[in-house]
Amino acid sequence: MTEALLHAHKKHVAVLMGGWSAEREVSLVSGAGVAKALEEEGYRVTAVDVQRDLGGLMQALTHPRPDVVFNALHGRGGEDGTIQGVLEFLGLPYTHSGVQAAAIAMDKAMTKRVLETVGIRSPKGVVLARGDITGGVHPMPAPYIVKPVDEGSTVGVTLVREGQNSPVGDAWTFGERALVEEFIPGRELTVGVMGDRALAVTEIVFQAQVYDYTAKYSAGHAIHTIPAAVPEAVAEEAKRLAVLAHHTLGCRGVSRSDFRWDDSRPGTEGLYFLEINNQPGMTPLSLVPEQAAHVGISYGALVGWLVENAACQLA
């Protein structure tokens, strides 16, 4: 038996999944996959379906107390610093980003402002109140993108086309603020980062006008090409920017940065950062496990690495 496996047998890992965000069902799939893989890697695992019940969560994480928490939650409450604060309070090492990095990364507008300071370009945009996007006045020339400031997994992303009477109508249910950005034509690229390393560049081709929640999590709605068939200079720049974004925001473990590449422009001029996911999905359709496998890292090895690199500032 290897030293790593012997070490793994000594660790009890609580896998947090579910939650109360719009991404609850995806989180349950991610968590189930993680729990199964960790058990196969020799860890003792307790799956915790997180509800909006702090007392119940505290009970689950103290009786018995795990050695490590694998955070497989997605969306609000799970990757915005909320659950991270609870784990810091308990002094439990946990996977993925800490409180500050998670809070900033979840706020798309704040992420843009921080990353602009290190030269990472994103589409021109503005944060508007709900009332400013549900009326009949367009905030910028169409086409443009409207998306929630603080939702993950492209929840609520809307493309406003030329000729539309109003930006999003009256059905906006994603908070009181929205980020409105110019639409960048071209191709969708994404780069996973594991520690200090960019894993690969994937191009995502999808049937819809935008890479939305359905395209991301429904089989047959998107095609992943890995490595992306793009010029080497574009691929290397996307990798560089993904690692730079990861470190600038203070992310930990794995993250994934999404880009648009306008291939009608020369060189890397058409490459734009869209957003960072500090807690990427771990479902069978998820991009980071797929990229890890592409570079020779199995799913089990990936989740095991996250556990072994878990941390807590207050531990």
Please provide a brief summary of the model.
The chain is built from 11 helices and 12 strands.
Task: Give descriptors for this structure.
five-stranded antiparallel sheet; about 325 residues; four-stranded antiparallel sheet; globular; alpha+beta
Description:
There is one protein chain. It is globular, with a radius of gyration of 20 Å. The strands form three sheets. It has a five-stranded antiparallel β-sheet. Strands 4-7-5-6 form a four-stranded antiparallel β-sheet. The longest helix is centred in the last third of the chain and has 18 residues. By secondary structure, it is an alpha+beta fold. The model has no long low-confidence stretch (mean pLDDT 89). A hairpin with a 2-residue loop joins β8 and β9. α2 packs across α11.
Sequence-ordered SSE layout with sheet pairings:
Layout: H1 3-9, E1 12-18, H2 24-40, E2 44-50, H3 54-60, E3 68-71, H4 82-90, H5 99-106, H6 108-116, E4 125-129, H7 130-133, E5 144-148, E6 158-160, E7 177-182, E8 187-194, E9 197-206, H8 213-217, E10 222-225, H9 232-249, E11 254-261, E12 271-277, H10 287-294, H11 299-308
Parallel strand pairs: 1-2, 1-3
Antiparallel strand pairs: 4-7, 5-6, 5-7, 8-9, 8-11, 9-10, 11-12
Widest sheet: strand order? 10-9-8-11-12
Question: What's the total count of β strands?
Answer: 12
Beta-strand share of residues: 15-25%
- Sketch the major β-sheet: 5 strands, antiparallel
How are helices and strands ordered from N to C?
HEHEHEHHHEHEEEEEHEHEEHH
Number of helices: 11
